[in-house]
Amino acid sequence: PELRREYGGCAGNIAYNLKLLGGNPLPMGTVGKDFQEYRQRLQTLDIPDHLVRELPELYTAQCTITTDQDNNQITAFHPGAMTEAHQNRVGDAHDIALGIVAPDGRDAMLQHAHDFAAKDIPFLFDPGQNLPLFSRDELITFLDQSTWCVLNDYESQLLMNTTGDRIEDLAARVDALIITRGGEGSEIHVNGEAIAIPAVSVTSAIDPTGCGDAYRAGLLYALDKGWSWDVAGRVGALLGAIKVEHRGTQNHTFTREEFSDRLVESCGIDFINLRH
């Protein structure tokens, strides 16, 4: 067995991947008195940290993940300062093109979805492992407020079970509903159709932790650029594949040129010179 300590968290992981692609992420969250080293890392990466609020009486959220040789995982989580994330307001940020409501404190997710909708800022709803925290009515409200929704295979089944709705009905509430299926690729439900996005072949599947965040960063980057859903899905798929080839959630790196070369190789899309 091997023990490692890694930087992580949905906001941190998504911001890291967006930065690699050339995006301008602005993470928002609450952290504890032990965050200084991570803050220095954000500053080194030139990722803005002014919306990362420190609560000195608490510790930063900690996640302990045990992974076996078949990539099965058991996760133990202490939320720490994340339980106070509702103290942050979307209105504290300026010049925002789009956002994501990813797993966070329950109250914060409700608050930030409301904030985005009230300010008419398009956002991606990503309930993740927090989906069971919400009632049917709350989940329906999330979908109606959000512009897009992304789920993994298990979460999509859980959402259908909780709401009693078919996937087609849920997809009709948003501009697009994205479902990821790991090595089987993903599908994007938009305008009554399902776009199949194949998985990208990997040199070696080392660690699945953080692949979902990488995929979501790819989606957000493509959405910001106004690219098609087929391109958005393929950018997300490649970013997830690159991540799975490395241990930890923020240890992969590449240049935009290297990413473009691999995207051309996998599906013929020129990332650097793409205009739409």
Write a structural description:
The protein is α/β, with parallel strands linked by helices and 276 residues long. The protein has one domain: Ribokinase (UDP-N-acetylmuramoyl-L-alanine:D-glutamate ligase). Helices cover 37% and strands 16% of the residues. It contains nine helices and ten strands. The strands form three sheets. A six-stranded mixed β-sheet has the order 5-6-7-8-9-10, sandwiched between helices. Strand 8 and strand 9 form a beta hairpin.
Give a quick rundown of the structure.
The protein is 37% helix and 16% strand. With 276 residues, it is α/β, with parallel strands linked by helices. It has one domain (10-267): UDP-N-acetylmuramoyl-L-alanine:D-glutamate ligase, CATH 3.40.1190.20.
Mean pLDDT: 96
Spans of at least 5 consecutive residues whose pLDDT stays below 50 are none
CATH class: Alpha Beta
The amount of helix comes to 25-40%
State the helix count.
Answer: 9
Features:
single chain; 276 residues; alpha/beta; UDP-N-acetylmuramoyl-L-alanine:D-glutamate ligase; six-stranded mixed sheet; two-stranded parallel ribbon
Element layout with pairings:
Elements: H1 10-21, E1 29-31, H2 36-44, E2 52-54, E3 62-67, E4 73-78, E5 99-101, H3 106-118, E6 123-125, H4 136-145, E7 148-152, H5 153-163, H6 167-171, E8 176-180, E9 186-190, E10 193-197, H7 211-225, H8 229-244, H9 256-267
Parallel strand pairs: 1-2, 5-6, 6-7, 7-8
Antiparallel strand pairs: 3-4, 8-9, 9-10
Helix pairs in contact: 1-7, 7-8, 8-9
